[in-house]
Design a protein that fits this description.
Shape: elongated
Number of helices: 9
Structural class: alpha/beta
Number of domains: 2
Number of strands: 16
Radius of gyration: 24 Å
CATH superfamily of the largest domain: Creatinase/methionine aminopeptidase superfamily
Strand content: 15-25%
Low-confidence stretches: none
Length: about 400
């Protein structure tokens, strides 16, 4: 646990403290931020880190030692009345504390504390606010070493993507049979050979399947890839080592030399929205101006809406990236949620607008890393449809 860093961040955000709570390991964020061993908690525990002073905990008598690895006094309780009294003592003198709570569940990634526990904490006279910005600081910010793993994963994934398109080109031009599932397996085998791992995927979608943002071919559902088809590849992976972070991209191609005017137009609209969102982030970071995730989504969505395709852009513009492909930092989102978290230094997220028509879908996804004074795309960026 980085106690000094947590307390500095609490002071910076003008919070009196951060209250952690768990029961039956429902909050993995608490265990990671506190560096707490993952023992099963069959009774409730609380741990409070004030902005100033010593932290302290509250734990059940039959599970003493749950918080033994953490500094500070541990108040014991058995009965529910003792629990309330202990909580009152733990938070004595505090007015405004953060918990893994999100008003209206706007950010479900941090909504780990149940409504009843929030009500209980409020009953002792404390205002509960969201820990979303704190979680981003301690969960989503990368180290220089993490950034290096991302960049290396990017090199390897980009090579696999190019090889997958080459496989599609060779088979479709020669008239050899090829299924979406064949390409998926080729990508997974290539990841393994390149020393990378992934949690699931990739997405290989042909024609109408490319219009399903979370389509994934399987033994039960896989379409052939032929000349004249539109193809979408969405793949993500990380190096197979501790602390590595993901690289996540989407590219599209056409099996032939002459995609339709509609395909070219939709591709131009999607990549235009992508580039507008990237520019918005880069200008804000270079100018030292605050920027929230929802504002980035507004830029991409506004671009697509202005071209008449707004109803076909059915998901957020981007998501946080970390050791999990969907990380715990700010998402570029004003559709599925209203994400007011700041775009913070040393975080990374995807920019991936899409237009999904009944016949085919286009998504263009890059990863954008935010440094102290600049934001940069971390891998290759698609400028034209890949002609296969």
């Amino acid at each position: 646990m980085e106690l000094d860093k947590i307390q500095r961040e609490l002071a910076s955000q003008k919070l009196d403290g951060w209250l952690f709570f768990d029961h039956h390991q429902r909050d993995p964020l608490a265990y990671r931020v506190l560096g707490l061993p993952g023992r099963m908690a069959t009774r409730r525990w609380y741990y409070f880190i004030p902005a100033h002073g010593d932290p302290a905990g509250l734990e059940h008598r039959i599970e003493r030692g749950m918080l033994a690895s953490l500094p500070g006094e541990k108040i014991p309780y058995s009965s529910w009345t003792e629990q309330v009294a202990g909580l009152r003592k733990l938070l004595s003198g505090q007015r405004r504390v953060a918990m893994q709570y999100s008003p209206n569940c706007a950010i479900p990634y941090v909504a780990m504390v149940d409504a009843g526990t929030v009500e209980l904490v409020r009953s002792v006279g404390v205002e509960v606010v969201s820990s979303a910005e704190l979680v981003q600081t301690f969960e989503a910010r990368w180290s220089p070493e993490a950034l290096e793993t991302h960049l290396e994963a990017g090199h390897r994934v980009d090579r696999v993507r190019a090889a997958a398109f080459e496989l599609i080109r060779e088979r479709t031009r020669n008239g050899a049979p090829l299924q979406e599932l064949d390409v998926k397996q080729f990508v997974l085998d290539s990841f393994h050979e390149a020393g990378m791992v992934t949690d699931h995927g990739p997405i290989v979608g042909v024609n109408a399947n490319a219009s399903n943002p979370h389509y994934e071919p399987s033994e039960e559902a896989s379409s052939p890839i032929r000349r004249g088809d539109f193809v979408l590849l969405d793949m993500w992976a990380k190096l197979d080592r501790p602390g590595a972070v993901y690289y996540d991209i989407t590219w599209t191609g056409f099996c032939g030399d002459s995609p339709s005017d509609e395909m070219r137009n939709v591709f131009a609209v999607v990549t235009g929205a992508r580039d507008a969102a990237i520019k918005r982030v880069q200008e804000a970071v270079a100018g030292g101006r605050p920027l929230c995730g929802y504002e980035v989504d507004d830029v991409a969505r506004g671009f697509i809406e202005s071209r008449g395709f707004g109803s076909y852009f059915t998901h957020r513009t981007g998501h946080s990236i970390g050791q999990e492909v969907h990380g715990n930092g700010a998402n570029m989102d004003n559709l599925e949620t209203h994400d007011e978290r700041r775009v913070a230094p040393w975080t990374c997220f995807s920019i991936e607008p899409g237009v999904y028509l009944p016949e085919f879908g286009v998504r263009s996804e890059i990863n954008l890393f935010v440094g102290e004074k600049e934001a940069r795309v971390t891998g290759e960026m698609q400028r034209e449809l890949v002609l296969l």
